[in-house]
């Protein structure tokens, strides 16, 4: 089938208005995640007495739904995206509260809604929706001064962060706070508010260190590796040394057999050992291209909501990549944060597809503007 600019069908209009370079980069990342999962996940499955390709098959199960969600969301208008995100945000907060009360604790946290062998992490979707809802409120702050937009968005932030801390998921709360502060700054936040939020964030960090033992342990191990076992980060760094520039070859890595989270948080280390530092740099370059192109598109947007929403979603993607990769190379303490589209996890895949689908949709050229 050949698409024509004269054709005004939904698919044709989508194809000639979408940012095809960004779409191509996103598809490269998604396919890379599926390919890497084939090599990284079998050892973890066997350790858990599962069939060798259990995690790969589940990753592949989400492959087509991820592509479909990316496409469908990119078709929506900005108004439809706002409404969808408001629904996801409110419903997601209710689910997060319900999980805290009725949910099952897994590894000391209550984050997942279980359906048989499938699980859903509502906070992954809520953080995307929260960014878009916040962007809309920040827009109203400028367009409708009579509307108490700032108190609304601050209240939503406090509720969301409180639920994340209660799970507990301090890393996710830290990520959301950074993105939200970035969005607040882009919307014209005064410097006195920047100072206030920075002070509160530092105070919250110190409080988490003092009050939460697992946070204290991770930070102490990071600052002084001799203070306790820092096993995963040490093995991750070893992966980079073993892989060198070109890697030991697909499927030939040894350290993935002893890395407990090789298919999720430390999948970048698996890439380093099997495909080498050159492959890691190439993958990082694709992520950087998406982030830079997204920010450039946001800067060229005349519509305030589009500009704020694109910026927030792109910052979310970029910071999550930076945090995950920084942990893998020993620049940050260990934290359970996935590498977008690469790490195993259905909630992470679908939530990232939701976010990037919105970026693609918001950066589309309007039908009357394309040539």
List keywords for this structure.
mainly alpha, two-stranded antiparallel ribbon, 70% helix, globular, 371 residues, 2 strands
Short structural description:
The protein is mostly helical and 371 residues long.
SSE map:
Blueprint: H1 10-17, H2 20-40, H3 42-47, H4 54-61, H5 63-75, H6 78-102, E1 113-115, E2 118-120, H7 122-143, H8 149-166, H9 170-186, H10 191-211, H11 213-223, H12 231-243, H13 267-299, H14 304-328, H15 346-362
Antiparallel strand pairs: 1-2
Q: Please report the distance between the alpha carbons of the first and last residues.
A: 21 Å
Question: Which word captures the global form?
Answer: globular
Q: What is the mean pLDDT?
A: 86
Order of helices and strands: HHHHHHEEHHHHHHHHH
What does this structure look like?
This protein is mainly α and 371 residues long. 70% of the residues lie in helices and 2% in strands. The chain is built from 15 helices and two strands. The chain has helices at 10-17, 20-40, 42-47, 54-61, 63-75, 78-102, 122-143, 149-166, 170-186, 191-211, 213-223, 231-243, 267-299, 304-328, 346-362, and strands at residues 113-115, 118-120. The chain has a two-stranded antiparallel sheet. A hairpin with a 2-residue loop joins strand 1 and strand 2 (118-120). The model has no long low-confidence stretch (mean pLDDT 86).
């Amino acid at each position: 089938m050949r698409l024509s600019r004269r054709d005004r069908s939904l698919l044709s209009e989508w194809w000639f208005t979408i940012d095809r370079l960004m779409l191509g980069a996103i598809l490269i990342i998604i396919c890379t995640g599926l390919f890497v999962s084939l090599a990284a996940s079998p050892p973890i499955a066997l350790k858990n007495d599962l069939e060798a390709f259990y995690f790969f098959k589940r990753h592949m199960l989400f492959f087509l739904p991820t592509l479909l969600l990316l496409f469908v969301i990119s078709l929506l208008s900005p108004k439809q995206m706002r409404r969808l995100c408001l629904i996801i945000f409110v419903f997601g907060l209710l689910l997060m509260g319900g999980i805290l009360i009725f949910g099952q604790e897994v590894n000391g946290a209550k984050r997942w809604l279980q359906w048989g062998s499938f699980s859903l992490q509502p906070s992954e979707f809520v953080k995307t929706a929260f960014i878009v809802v916040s962007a809309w409120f920040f827009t109203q702050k400028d367009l409708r001064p009579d509307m108490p937009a700032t108190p609304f968005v601050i209240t939503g932030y406090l509720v969301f962060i409180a639920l994340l801390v209660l799970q507990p998921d301090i890393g996710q709360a830290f990520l959301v706070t950074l993105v939200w502060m970035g969005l607040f700054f882009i919307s014209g936040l005064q410097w006195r508010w920047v100072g206030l939020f920075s002070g509160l964030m530092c105070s919250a960090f110190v409080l988490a260190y003092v009050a939460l033992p697992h946070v204290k342990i991770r930070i102490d191990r990071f600052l002084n590796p001799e203070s306790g076992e820092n096993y995963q980060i040490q093995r991750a760094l070893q992966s980079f040394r073993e892989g060198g520039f070109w890697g030991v070859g697909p499927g030939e890595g040894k350290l993935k057999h002893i890395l407990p989270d090789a298919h999720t948080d430390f999948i970048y280390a698996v890439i380093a050992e099997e495909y080498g530092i050159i492959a890691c740099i190439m993958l990082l370059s694709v992520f950087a291209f998406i982030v830079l192109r997204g920010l450039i598109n946001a800067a060229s947007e005349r519509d305030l909501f589009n500009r704020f929403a694109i910026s927030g979603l792109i910052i979310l993607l970029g910071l999550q990549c930076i945090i995950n990769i920084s942990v893998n190379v020993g620049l940050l303490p260990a934290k359970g944060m996935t590498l977008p589209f690469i790490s195993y996890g259905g909630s992470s895949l679908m939530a990232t597809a939701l976010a990037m689908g919105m970026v693609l949709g918001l950066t589309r050229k309007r039908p009357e503007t394309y040539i």
